[in-house]
Amino acid sequence: MGVQKRPHDDDPLSRVLAPPPNETAEERETRLRLEAEARQISDKIDEQLKAERAALKKNRPVKVLLLGQSESGKSTTLKNFQLTYCRDQWEAERASWCMVIQLNLVRGINTILDILSEEMAGVGGSGGAPPPAVDSDVSDDDDGPGPGPARTFSPSSSTFSGKHRLLKLRLTPLRTVQRDLELRIGIQAGADISDHFVPASPPGSPVLGATRKQEFFVRSATSWKQLQGWGAGEGEGGGGGGAGRKSKDIQMRETADILAGCAEDMKAIWEDATVREMLLRKGVRMETTPGFFLNDIDRIASRSYQPSDDDVVRARLRTLGVQEHKIKFASGPAAGSEWCIYDVGGSRTQRIAWYPYFDDCDAIIFLAPISCFDERLAEDRRVNRLEDSFMLWKAVVSSKLLAKTSIVLFLNKCDLLEQKLLNGVRIKEYVHSYGDRPNDLEHATKYFAQHFRDILRKHSPEPRPFRVHMTSVVDTKATAVTLSVVEEGILRDHLTRADLL
Ligand SMILES: Nc1nc2c(ncn2[C@@H]2O[C@H](COP(=O)(O)OP(=O)(O)OP(=O)(O)O)[C@@H](O)[C@H]2O)c(=O)[nH]1
Ligand SMILES: [Mg+2]
Q: Which ranges does the record mark as transmembrane (predicted)?
C-alpha cells in the first residue's frame, strides 16, 4: 500500500509551514498560540500601514479646482478665500491692485470713447442682433441654441454735440495712461477679445469688427504683484527699491495726477444720457467691473486713492493657464489644514490646461453664472453662455477621472440675475422651456438648479450628492458663510476618502 501524498508535500513553502509530523498535543497547542500571536502582529502592521497612508492623505494639502467659463467668478471666489484666511498677504498686496483698478477704470472710459468715435463717424451701425437662446430642456443633448427673442433694435437716434467732441479731446491722455499701466502690470495682449465691452452682435459684423478689443491678462498670479515691488515678494528679489522703485513712484504719481485731472470729464462722459443710450443700444455690458468703478470715479481717480476690500474683490484681471494658491487655514471649519486652490482660465482656449489637474483632485467648485442666460461667449459669439455652462458641467461631472471628487456648484451672479429680471428681461425668451413660470429670482434659480441636477444624475459615473449654492461672490459677507459650509463638506469628504484607502 503506497503512502498517500499530503497537499503540501510538493510545495516547499507549505512543507516549511506544515506542522511537524508526530506533533504532540502540547507542541500543537504552543504552535497554534505562536501562530495566533504572529497573525495578530501582522494585522497590527497592516492597520498601521493603512493609518499611515490615510494620515499622509489627510495631511497632504487638500486640492481644490475652481472651474467654470470665463467671467464666471472663479478668481473672485479665490479672493474671498484669501480675504478671509490670508489677511496678511491680502494687506501686502492691496497697493498692487491699485494699478489694476485704475486700468479697469481707464479701459472703461477708453472703450466708451472708441464706440463714441465710431458713432460720430457714422460707422457704428444700428446695434447688435439679439443673443441666441438656450433651450435647456435637455440641455446637454440639444442641437443648439434656439432663435432668441424677437427683440428689435432701433437705429441710432443719438445726436452728438460739441460737448462730446470736447470730452473726447480732453480725455485723450487716458490712452497713454492705459498703455503705461498695461506695461507696468506686465500685461500681454490676449488672443481673446474683451469680456466686458463686446456688443451682442454676430461674428464678422461691422460693430464687432470695429469695436473688437484685445483682452488683457498677466501670466502668473504673483509675478505682476512682485514686479511692482509692493507685493508679498518685496525684499525677496521682488524688484523693489533703488532707482527703479523711485521711477515707479514717479510713474504712480503721474498716473494719479492725470486721473485726478480727468475725473470731471470721465464723470461727464459716463453720466451723459446720450452716451448711456448709445451703450444700451449697442448692447455693451458694463454692469460688472467697469460699471462698479465708473460709478465711483471721484474716489478711484483721487490722488490719495487706496483700494478698499470691495475694490480688490471687484478688480478684473483675466486668468491665464492654471494658477496655484496655497491657503493654510488658521480658523474656520478647515482650521489646521492646508489647501491648494487652483484658479484656472475659463475661456475655451484655456480649458485644455485643466485636465492634468483632474488627477488627484479632491474637490471642484464649479461656477455657473446664471445671470448670463441672454449673453454670448466673448470667445465665440455663436454660443449662449448658459448653454456653455451646461455643457461644461456635463463634461466635468461625467469625467471618470473625477468620479470620486467632491463637486460643489455655485449658481453665481444671482445679484445680476435678480437685477436683470427686475429690469424686465424675460427668461422664457431665451430659455424656451422656462415656459410661464414666474420671471423672478426664486423660480429662476430653482429651475436652473434642477437642470444642473438632472445633468449630474444622468452623467455622473457614480451616484454622488448634488451640492449647490446660490451665490453672488462679490458679496464677501454672504460668500464667507457659504465658503464655511463648503469647506466643511470638502474636508469631511477628504477625510472619509483617506479612511477608505
Ligand atoms: N455682480 C457680480 N459680479 C460678479 C460676480 N462674480 C464675479 N463677478 C464679476 O465678474 C467678472 C469676472 O469675474 P472673475 O472672477 O474675474 O471671473 P473668472 O471666472 O476668474 O474669469 P477668467 O479668469 O476669465 O476665467 C469680474 O468683474 C467680477 O467682479 C457676482 O456674483 N456678481
Ligand atoms: Mg480668473
A: none
Domains and CATH numbers, the chain: 60-85+319-493 (3.40.50.300), 93-133+148-314 (no CATH)
Alpha-carbon gap, residue 137 to 449, rounded angstroms: 12
The cell numbers describing 289, all together, are: 467691473
In terms of pLDDT, which residue wins out, 263 or 89? 263
Name the closest-CA residue to atom 11, ligand 1. 71
Measured by CA distance, the residue closest to atom 12 of ligand 1 is 71
Annotated binding residue at 360?
no
Pick from 377, 459, 482: nearest CA to 141: 459
Residue 412 annotated as lining a ligand binding site: yes
Alpha-carbon span 322 to 342, nearest angstrom: 6
CA of 367 to the centre of ligand 2 (A): 11
Ligand nearest to the CA of residue 385, numbered in listed order: 1
Contact between 383 and 347 under an 8 Å Cβ cutoff? The reply is no
Helix or strand holding residue 406 (H, E): strand 406-412
* Strand ranges in 45-127 using DSSP code E only, listed in sequence order: 62-67
* Cα 474 to ligand 1 centre (Å): 8
For residue 33, give the 3-state DSSP assignment.
Answer: helix
CA angle 368, 372, 377 (to 5 degrees): 90
The more confident residue out of 135 and 475 is: 475
76-100: average pLDDT: 93
Of the CA atoms within 13 Å of residue 356, those in its CB half-sphere come to 6
For ligand 1, residues with CB inside 6 Å are 68, 70-76, 288-289, 314, 316, 318-319, 345-347, 412-413, 415-416, 472-474
Q: Whole-model pTM?
A: 0.78
Reply yes or no on whether the pLDDT at 83 is more than 80.
yes
Beta-bridge partners for 326: 340
Give the per-residue pLDDT at 33: 92
